Amino acid sequence: MSSLWEYANPQKFMRTSSVLLPVFAVAAAISLGVGLVWGFFLTPEAENFGSTVKIIYIHVPSAMMAINAWVMMLVTSLIWLVRRHHVSALAARAAAPIGMTMTLIALVTGAIWGEPMWGTYWVWDPRLTSFLILFLFYLGYIALWEAIENPDAAADLTSVLCIVGSVFAVLSRYAVNFWSQGLHQGASLSLDKKENVADVFYIPLLLCIAGFVCLFVALVLLRTRTEIRARRIRAMIARERMA
Amino acid sequence: MIALLQRDLKLAIRAGGGFGLGLAFFLIVVVLVPFGVGSDSGLLAAIAPGILWVGALLACLLSLDRIFALDHEDGSLDLLATAPIPLEGAVAMKAAAHWVTTGLPLTLAAPGLGLLLNLPASGYGWLAASLALGTPALSMIGSFGAALTVGLKRGGLLLSLLVLPLYVPTLIFGAEAVARGIDGRDTGTPLLMLAAITLAATALLPFAAAAAIRINLR
Amino acid sequence: MELVVTDLACARGGVPVLEGVDFTLVAGQALMLRGPNGIGKTTLLRTLAGLQPPLAGSVSAPTESIAYAAHADGLKATLTVTENLTFWARIFGQTDIAPAIEAFDLADLAGRPAQNLSAGQKRRLGLARLLVTGRPIWMLDEPTVSLDAASVAQFGRAVARHLDRGGAALIATHIDLGFEAGVLDVSAFRARPRRIDSFDEAFA
Fold this sequence. Notes:
The complex is a heterotrimer of chains A (about 240), B (about 220) and C (about 200). With about 240 residues, chain A is an all-alpha fold. Chain A has helices spanning about 10-40, 55-85, 85-120, 125-145, 150-180, 200-240. Chain A has one domain (about 25-240). Chain C is of the alpha/beta class. Chain C folds into 2 domains: about 1-60 and about 135-145 and about 170-205, 3-Layer(aba) Sandwich (Rossmann fold); about 65-135. The interface of A and C includes residues 234, 235, 242 and 243 of A. Chain C: InterPro entries: AAA+_ATPase, ABC_transporter-like_ATP-bd, ABC_transporter-like_CS, ABC_transptr_haem_export_CcmA, P-loop_NTPase.
């Protein structure tokens, strides 16, 4: 029986990901294309929101992926620290800029939506503030990766930062809730309780979320492959220098 | 380990040790704020808890990179890592020394500086209490950040970038405790949260910081 | 008291530099590490001292038996000679610094802050620190840098005395210290560059 850990072998990873990458890329293109066209042009305007409601097709999936990317980094960091699989560390490194971009998209689309809804681009609302803090965590994490030359030491240190940062991120979430009661509506989407979002919006939204998940996976695979190739080049250069 | 604490305190008060710099920086921040926001005493009183907490936090941040960088440069850190005392203990002692030389003086000076910002009379006790409970966490979290960046040539800016998001909960609960104290509302929750952060940081972060130092030394 | 190194490999900055290092160091013995600059003498010493993990192989020595001294002495400029030594003695659980002061002729300088010492005097203080650790195996990385001839001789005598008392020393130096010592040429253990055919080998 083959073990999941076999995919941590760089060569096996390169082989498997070369097959998976186009699959996820095509799946992302299809579901995002259909979901966005359906959402933007084929749904009615909500009575109390107007056409601005349609930004949820980008805002909600990107916000979900912003958090999921951090969770993925936490898991891969733990795997690196415990089992020393290089692919795991490189996947964490690859996911960080994508997660940061998702956070930025969620913040910007939120600001654009906030203006017609609340009359202001920015309020220090708990949810918005939490995302801003998450953005800072991403920034620090990426900066630490870039600052350290030895790749193994960088992987170790960023993993430790990711674990400690996760604890503080959760703590910040509660602190921020305690600090300010906000304007933002509660989580309006869950799989078992969909009454918050009307049915007409629900299916294209699910498609967009699936599209963002596939896009994220495809981008992480692509970037991890790039990181592995970069490591190989590094090793070859080092060998040249020794010979 | 007490020897390490004593040495760090001795180094801090000798020439060039930087003792008092944080305090002076705190004073300057507090003096600059009225120039920026205007001299309206009502406004100053309203923002005083936040300004005092942010000022204390920045003053603390200023001296963080000294915690391990100097010991790294002169080789002391190598020797401490091979010494019989656990590196985790050494980290905790160095954080404690940092608190005694920055957090403690800031706590004692803050009520005096509160005067400059028209802090309402009912706030002084809460300010001192919240700083006393919260600043040890700032030193401990800062030591963790300093441990992450100890091997880097110019790690100061990166250190700030890493540490500031980690300071958010402490700042929120600290400033909130003072604001609530002034309004006569219940301060139990924020003060307990501050104490919890300080205790948890003191219990757990030395392990993370020592791990980071070992990684940086190799 | 014995240091046994078996098939040790170590890396600097993630790149393997030495492999297959094998030797034994027993009480009363000194070994000189030789080899050109950049061959990995410092890396080897740091690995043996436990500051970095070996890539492969094993180092066996009694626990807490190794005292490591590198180019940086771990001295604080504003502390006096006595304060510096007392601090390290306390960290290593020792109390008596008098033998160290005497061995390196530091009595006249005892009350001076380290910043007022010359480079050679500082070096002597840094080496005196080895004595206050009370540990038997000394690992010294270029210990004679900035020492004059008389100080080198003095240092040689201190190491010889340490060996007589059942200590051992591993010293990276090219200078003759005036006592009998074995030589370990590190260049023999230079890691051979491996062919990188697959992606796996890029990850040491």
